[in-house]
Amino acid sequence: MIAALTAKAIGLALTPLASGAVELEPLPERQRTVAILVAVGTLLLVLELVRRRKLREEYSWFWASTAMLLIVLAVYEGCLVELSRWIGAASTVSTLFFGAFVFLMILGLQFSIRLSRLTHRNRTMAQRLALLEQEIARLRGESRPEESRAEESRAEQPGSAKPRHGKTGKERDEVA
């Protein structure tokens, strides 16, 4: 009994949407004003962040285009109503929320791609650094015998074993 009533209620609720008989209304004036102010504020903020070099140009196009799209949808009521019909939304406000959801999904995808690239680049740089450090250690290992021979030959010459400050290692240890 309850299942039949629920199915009937769902069928009645979906009938106007399926037949397209729902009349979509444009955004109320207050919501429209808020949408325009938020979009203009976002656009100005993005431009200022780019000017101060806090936001790179490659990211700013996404924010600026979204703000411009929101301005167009809020100013031209017919565009938002037609878009709502096209996606099958029950109201124009639902269309804006759907747009915000899509925006956040695209933004998350973009950041995931960037993060993947940076992770790969970081791993590659760490591997290259390890190879360079290994090469430096190998080169130092080859040059050490030559340096030690040169130090030994200097030590054999009279007067050359003294460091520039006048005391040898033993003399400094005795003073300390």
Describe this entry's structure for a reader:
The protein is mainly alpha-helical and 176 residues long. It has a domain at 24-131. It has helices at 2-19, 29-51, 57-75, 77-87, 92-156, 169-175.
The number of helical segments is 6
Number of DSSP-assigned strands: 0
The largest β sheet comes out as: none
- How would you state the average pLDDT, rounded? 81
Cα gyration radius (Å)? 36 Å
Chain-wise SSE layout:
Layout: H1 2-19, H2 29-51, H3 57-75, H4 77-87, H5 92-156, H6 169-175
Helix pairs in contact: 2-3, 3-4, 4-5
Task: Label this structure with key terms.
single chain
Summed up:
Helix 2 runs antiparallel to helix 3 and helix 3 (57-75) crosses helix 4.
